[in-house]
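During data preparation, a discrete fold description was generated, as reproduced here:
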Amino acid sequence: MGVGLSGLHCISDPHRKWISSSVAFPYWCDTLATLNDYQVNTLGEGKFVDNLILNNGETATFLYVDDWSRPVYKLKSGTKVCCVNCDGTYLHTISAGSGEPDSPIRDEYQPTNKTSIVEELPSTQDFTFDYMFLDRLRCDLEYYFGFGNRNDKVLHYLDVHNHIAEMKNRLDAFPKDKRPEWLTEDDISNYESRLTA
């Protein structure tokens, strides 16, 4: 188990070394360390994540939770896989170099139980990235209607209808008490009405 950001190794992977304990980390590292401490402590008690039973009858053994809150498992063959949904429902292989999810594995190696095994994250779950990405989509639309001359190539999703649909999906994904004040469903509807203007 790691000692946090004040020490020399990472919480979720004791084999990965930090460059130095004196390196200044951004403020979100404290949140990540707190979240990983929660996961590591709870993992020790076996409450947060469990092994998975696969469609072929084998068991995927839980190893750890990576820095992006994805549970990592080891198959009988020794291959490491991770769940991109962060809940043990959809497994991908892991690239050897970066540790990033590579490609989905075959159905026979997917979990039989498609319901979530991972409990809800603590209430300290951070939506910073979700807010930033939703605001990026909003800014793309503002540019699209302004200096972008309604050119779909300036949009992240390269099609204004898909772009707006994704904004609606991302806004709906927030819990009611965590929705941004700077973008509402009415604002997105106003963007849609500007399409016909």
